[in-house]
């Protein structure tokens, strides 16, 4: 091998210095520029001494050379000998290339610094802030709900870290959420899986962390990687709430995140809500009211005056709040037996419109005994349910539905999806039939005999992008609505959609329930970010075991058409082993945003319930 020459060493050294970035380039150009000016000054004093006129020493010559290098146009006003004009022309020409390149590099370096500041790479110095890691459409729901929750707090901060432009994120939040009130949004550009980028969020001082499931392929893998990065970091670990899209990845995510992480299973939660909504009209609206920070919210309270009191007596203990259960050391139980005694280490779970409304009443309310109706519970009978379309959570929905219905019930699956009706072995109560059907085609729908079914579930077809899938769902709902009005048929309809903006369009179809799965998960994440102890409460609500929310005929509780207080309704439900939390006005069932649902009315509020109205209760099946 030949010996390395001096030239090669010099070139290698030069390459290394140039690879150091803008600062190195500027240094070399500055050296070359200074060399050019010095050479021009020396040549001027040698070839044209005494020029230009009035120049007395070398410093003035250097200054003239510098001005010619910085301003090449000065050569046009020069006068003197040929030698002087030639040297100044060379100086101006050199300055045109070298010094202008130096100015350009300085400008570019400054621009890069400004862009770096614009992207947001400084460390957050806030404390008590909520951190959101990742980006999806759920971020707008979460931010909007946290803004409502923090409306009375001064200096509230929500910090977002995602692989998007800082200004783009801030503009998107302002566009979708609107007025942020007293809450500030701080966005940082970075990868939530990188420890260096996580350090920007000052996690040790954060109140809670929300990890979003991103859009795209295999989103749960991304969530699990973020949980690993959070678990491995040093310092204090705030509570973490993470969203998953598949139940199959829950065990891996729990192992990655550790004990401080609460996981929200998007598929499981949405599937349970769709099934419950298909059986209880208005269920989705009730859940949305409980999950958002607009109407009734769930609080945990430890009132000393209720220690030793039974749960049945506690139902009348609040004037403007509704007790719904107990959080005990052994776990959460909603609608426990009326004779359950409240212990000192129990917390009462209540629904209230605001924290300040959770106050004990002065005394027991007046009960109208004459208005209370005593009826038995109707036995469950086999049902017929129609499932239109198919997607990844359809199998889970059918299995949950199988746990609700009576033996001998029938489920008809109508879809042109290649996987429709697969992997359904082991069902106990349902008989499943599958038909190939284009659910947007009117004639195909009429051939199904929809009027023979009590319940219709319209799923979002996962073969299409979310916007197109919602469009197809709207077309199916419109066809069903027209068939109902034309043929005089009646059956409950629950539909699944992706975009909250399509809810307003779907209202014209008068579907009983519209489940926006992304919005539901976003609301649940926001609730748990504020109070992670509510996780067990919501898990109990969405579980098929134990008490659930049911809208039941008002005539089963009080005499219809009679003016009664809501306390009388609560007492009637208590005697049936149920907890009344509100009612539904049938005449307003299609009026947004509450669709006739009234949760947690004042106990002394006089109401008149009609034959078609419902009482919303927590009850066993």
UniProtKB/TrEMBL annotation:
A GO CC annotation given for this chain: endomembrane system
Stretches assigned to the RCK N-terminal domain: 127-263
SUPFAM superfamilies (alphabetical): NAD(P)-binding Rossmann-fold domains (SSF51735), TrkA C-terminal domain-like (SSF116726)
Keyword Transmembrane helix: yes
Family: Belongs to the castor/pollux (TC 1.A.1.23) family.
Localization (cell): Endomembrane system
Single Gene Ontology BP annotation: potassium ion transport
InterPro entries xrefs: CASTOR/POLLUX/SYM8-like (IPR044849), CASTOR/POLLUX/SYM8_dom (IPR010420), NAD(P)-bd_dom_sf (IPR036291), RCK_C (IPR006037), RCK_C_sf (IPR036721), RCK_N (IPR003148)
Topology within the bilayer: Multi-pass membrane protein
Listed name of the protein: Trk K+ transport system NAD-binding subunit
Pfam families referenced in this protein's UniProt entry, alphabetically: Castor_Poll_mid
Keyword ATP-binding applies: no
UniProt KW keywords: Ion channel, Ion transport, Membrane, Transmembrane, Transmembrane helix, Transport
Record-annotated membrane-spanning stretches: 21-48, 82-106
Species this protein is from: Nonomuraea thailandensis
GO molecular function, one term: monoatomic cation transmembrane transporter activity
Domain RCK C-terminal, residue spans: 283-366
């Amino acid at each position: 091998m030949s010996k390395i020459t001096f030239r090669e060493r010099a070139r290698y050294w030069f390459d290394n210095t140039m690879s150091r970035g803008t600062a190195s380039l500027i240094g070399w150009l500055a050296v070359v520029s200074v060399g050019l000016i010095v050479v021009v000054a020396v040549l001027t004093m040698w070839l044209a001494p005494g020029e230009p006129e009035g120049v007395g020493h070398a410093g003035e010559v250097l200054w003239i050379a510098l001005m010619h290098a910085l301003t090449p146009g000065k050569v046009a006003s020069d006068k003197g000998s040929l030698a002087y004009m030639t040297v100044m022309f060379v100086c101006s020409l050199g300055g045109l290339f070298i010094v202008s390149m130096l100015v350009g590099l300085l400008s570019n370096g400054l621009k890069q610094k400004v862009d770096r500041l614009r992207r947001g790479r400084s460390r957050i110095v806030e404390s008590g802030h909520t951190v959101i890691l990742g980006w999806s459409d759920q971020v707008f729901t979460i931010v909007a709900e946290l803004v409502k929750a923090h409306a009375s707090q001064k200096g509230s901060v929500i910090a977002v870290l995602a692989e998007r432009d800082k200004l783009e994120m801030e503009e998107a939040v302002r566009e979708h959420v609107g007025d942020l009130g007293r809450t500030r949004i701080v966005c940082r550009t970075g990868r939530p899986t990188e420890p260096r980028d996580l350090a920007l969020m000052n996690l040790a001082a954060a109140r809670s962390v929300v990890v979003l499931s991103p859009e795209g392929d295999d989103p749960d893998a991304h969530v699990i990687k973020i949980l690993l990065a959070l678990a491995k970091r040093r310092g204090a670990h705030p509570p973490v709430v993470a969203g998953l899209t598949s139940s199959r990845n829950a065990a891996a995510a729990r192992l990655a995140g550790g004990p401080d992480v609460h996981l929200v299973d998007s598929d499981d939660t949405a599937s349970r809500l769709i099934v419950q909504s298909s059986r209880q009209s208005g269920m989705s609206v009730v859940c949305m009211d409980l999950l958002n920070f607009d109407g009734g919210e769930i609080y945990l309270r430890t009132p000393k005056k209720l220690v030793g009191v039974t749960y049945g007596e506690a139902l009348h203990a609040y004037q403007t709040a509704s007790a719904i259960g107990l959080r005990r050391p052994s776990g959460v139980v909603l609608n426990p037996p009326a004779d359950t005694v409240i212990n000192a280490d129990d917390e009462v779970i209540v629904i209230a419109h605001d924290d300040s409304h959770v106050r004990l009443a002065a005394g027991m309310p007046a009960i109208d005994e004459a208005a209370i109706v005593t009826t038995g519970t109707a036995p469950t009978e086999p049902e017929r349910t129609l499932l239109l379309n198919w997607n990844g959570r359809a199998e889970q929905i059918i299995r949950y539905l199988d746990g609700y219905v009576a033996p001998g019930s029938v489920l008809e699956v109508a879809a042109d999806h290649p996987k429709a009706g697969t992997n359904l072995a082991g069902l106990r109560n349902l008989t499943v039939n599958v038909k190939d059907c284009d659910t947007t085609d009117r004639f195909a729908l009429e051939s199904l005999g929809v009027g023979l079914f009590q319940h219709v579930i319209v799923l979002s077809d996962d073969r299409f992008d979310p916007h197109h899938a919602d469009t197809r769902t709207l077309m199916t709902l419109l066809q069903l609505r027209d068939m109902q009005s034309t043929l005089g048929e009646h059956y409950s309809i629950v539909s699944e959609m992706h975009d909250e903006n399509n809810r307003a369009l779907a209202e014209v179809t008068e579907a009983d329930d519209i489940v926006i799965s992304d919005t539901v998960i976003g609301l649940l994440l926001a609730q748990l970010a504020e109070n992670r102890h509510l996780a067990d409460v919501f898990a109990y609500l969405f579980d098929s075991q134990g008490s659930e929310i049911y809208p039941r005929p008002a005539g089963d509780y009080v005499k219809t058409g009679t003016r009664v207080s809501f306390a009388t309704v609560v007492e009637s439900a208590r005697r049936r082993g149920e907890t009344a939390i509100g009612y539904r006005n049938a005449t307003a069932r299609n009026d947004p945003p509450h669709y006739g649902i009234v949760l947690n009315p004042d106990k002394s509020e006089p109401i008149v319930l009609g034959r078609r109205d419902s009482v919303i209760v927590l009850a066993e099946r």
